[in-house]
Design brief:
By secondary structure, the protein is an alpha+beta fold. Helices cover 28% and strands 13% of the residues. The protein folds into 2 domains: 47 residues, no CATH class; 34 residues, no CATH class. A 3-stranded antiparallel beta sheet has the order 1-2-3, with no helix packed on it.
Length: 95
Amino acid sequence: MTTARRDDSVDLSAQKSEGDLNLSPRRAEWQARALDDPTRRLLEEDARYFLHQSLSTPCLNALSGCDGIYLFDLAGRRYMDFHGNNVHQVGFAHP
């Protein structure tokens, strides 16, 4: 089996903080400060195997579950899903 690899030689400097692509220094600083080691390892594994679209931002965090309007990350932090877009990612917690 062959593994798809991202082409890091493409110059995306003009789009590093715009649109769906955000590779800005602030994002990197936030991830270094906010993510614990298990989350960081999971996101690195995702980036290794998941084929990202041309303007697809790498995952910002990893979710472990949900309860009503709240989402939980791997570190146990709770987020209110104001947008309602994460329902398709974590389901609706049906037993």
